[in-house]
């Protein structure tokens, strides 16, 4: 017997949280993990365009991390939230890995002298879209953290990730031989 994708439990505008409880679908917690889910989908789209092994290899673990962050945000119980963070191995070491990936990407690039207009190749453009979704998710998580205790590492991770996505978009353009349009 297979499980059905529909449960009908959300037909009245509420959704269930990990560990129990229901909230409105427009609850700030749902908005936050929904934006993280959208970011994950945007990264999947970016990975599907013009395969670039070193870029895509960085993004797959990020997508796994985002599932964990989404689960963390959907978990109202503080202890279970901490378990989600530990299970995902999102810690200072993981933040440092993102920073190393940023540094590695920047080593391939000319230093920034002005703002970059998002675009270029389809791969780079998709990474720029993912970057903006990441910034929105970060804003939602920060807003949620004003009312609900959220581990600071979730915000730090999203902040670093948006920087990484900016660098990866620039790297994708450079590797494809596409110039950058400056503002």
Automatic annotation (TrEMBL):
<keyword id="KW-0169">Cobalamin biosynthesis</keyword>
<dbReference type="GO" id="GO:0009236">
    <property type="term" value="P:cobalamin biosynthetic process"/>
</dbReference>
<keyword id="KW-0547">Nucleotide-binding</keyword>
<dbReference type="GO" id="GO:0008817">
    <property type="term" value="F:corrinoid adenosyltransferase activity"/>
</dbReference>
<keyword id="KW-0808">Transferase</keyword>
<keyword id="KW-0067">ATP-binding</keyword>
<dbReference type="InterPro" id="IPR029499">
    <property type="entry name" value="PduO-typ"/>
</dbReference>
<dbReference type="Pfam" id="PF01923">
    <property type="entry name" value="Cob_adeno_trans"/>
</dbReference>
<dbReference type="GO" id="GO:0005524">
    <property type="term" value="F:ATP binding"/>
</dbReference>
<protein>
    <recommendedName>
        <fullName>Corrinoid adenosyltransferase</fullName>
        <ecNumber>2.5.1.17</ecNumber>
    </recommendedName>
</protein>
<dbReference type="InterPro" id="IPR036451">
    <property type="entry name" value="CblAdoTrfase-like_sf"/>
</dbReference>
<comment type="similarity">
    <text>Belongs to the Cob(I)alamin adenosyltransferase family.</text>
</comment>
<keyword id="KW-0963">Cytoplasm</keyword>
<dbReference type="InterPro" id="IPR016030">
    <property type="entry name" value="CblAdoTrfase-like"/>
</dbReference>
<dbReference type="GO" id="GO:0005737">
    <property type="term" value="C:cytoplasm"/>
</dbReference>
<comment type="pathway">
    <text>Cofactor biosynthesis; adenosylcobalamin biosynthesis; adenosylcobalamin from cob(II)yrinate a,c-diamide: step 2/7.</text>
</comment>
<feature type="domain" description="Cobalamin adenosyltransferase-like">
    <location>
        <begin position="5"/>
        <end position="172"/>
    </location>
</feature>
């Amino acid at each position: 017997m297979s499980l059905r994708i529909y449960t009908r439990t959300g037909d009245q505008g509420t959704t269930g949280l990990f560990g129990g409880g229901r909230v409105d679908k427009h609850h700030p917690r749902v908005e936050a993990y929904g934006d993280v889910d959208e970011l994950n989908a945007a990264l999947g789209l970016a990975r599907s365009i013009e395969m670039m092994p070193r870029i895509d290899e960085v993004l797959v673990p990020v997508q796994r991390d985002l599932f964990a962050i989404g689960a963390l945000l959907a978990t109202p119980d503080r202890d279970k939230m901490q378990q989600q963070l530990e299970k995902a191995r999102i810690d200072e070491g993981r933040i440092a890995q993102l920073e190393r990936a940023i540094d590695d990407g920047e080593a391939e690039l000319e230093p920034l002298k002005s703002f970059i207009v998002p675009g270029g190749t389809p791969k780079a453009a998709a990474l720029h879209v993912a970057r903006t979704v990441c910034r929105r998710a970060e804003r939602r998580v920060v807003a949620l953290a004003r009312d609900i205790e959220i581990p600071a590492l979730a915000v730090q991770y999203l902040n670093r990730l948006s920087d990484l996505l900016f660098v990866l978009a620039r790297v994708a353009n450079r590797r494809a031989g596409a110039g950058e349009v400056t503002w």
